[in-house]
Design a protein that fits this description.
194 residues; mainly alpha; 6 helices; 9% strand
């Protein structure tokens, strides 16, 4: 079955029309870049901060945007990712660091800003967030607080240290398993929220 019988198009004869059409499209594209202020580079090229956060409850993206807008040169880009039931959020900020501020200090400053909005009672707290600390801090906390009251039971110091070292390792392993959830317990040790 033939759709077109003896189709003959003089493509070379129309080459100037195609060339003019291509140049017109190219000129429109370049003109569009110029009118938009040039190329818009992402934070990979301009510098900035990407934060991945998980919330205990579904976060209000507009509230996050409002709280971080004064901290960034351009409006922050806030996106959900992964399964909605896990409440994860990715935040991209252009140049959120202040002059002569290192990355860790900038991260802490942004977390304080978010805590003021989402967890005001712990905003200025020096407490550690269990979801973001290493094994040593968890172990020291358990040893100092003695939540299982092993001292009152008359346990020896080596036995208590080993018990809380094992407990800290179990807690960290639970927390780090697939990095799937937030641990919102452990009393004053953990700051709930962001």
């Amino acid at each position: 079955m033939e759709l077109f019988k003896q189709l003959s198009v003089d493509w070379l004869g129309k080459r100037w029309w195609f060339l003019c059409f291509s140049l017109l499209l190219l000129a429109l594209g370049v003109g569009g870049y110029i009118m938009q202020g040039g190329l818009k580079y992402g934070i990979d090229f301009t510098g900035g901060t990407i934060m991945l956060l998980k919330f205990n409850e579904k976060p209000d993206l507009d509230l996050i945007r409002e709280s971080l807008s004064p901290e960034a040169e351009t409006p922050p880009l806030i996106q959900r990712y992964d399964a909605p039931s896990k409440n994860p959020v990715q935040i991209r900020l252009q140049s959120a660091l202040e002059e002569n501020e290192d990355l860790e200090a900038g991260r802490k400053r942004l977390l304080v800003v978010l805590r003021k909005v989402f967890d005001p009672e712990h905003a200025e707290s020096q407490l550690h967030d269990f979801n973001n600390v290493g094994l040593d801090i968890v172990y020291k906390y358990l040893l100092e607080e003695d939540p299982d009251d092993l001292v009152a039971e008359g346990k020896g110091s080596l036995e208590i240290e080993q018990y809380y070292q094992d407990a800290a390792q179990l807690l960290k392993d639970f927390r780090d398993k697939d990095r799937e959830g937030l641990v919102s317990g452990l009393g004053a040790f953990c700051c709930e929220g962001a």
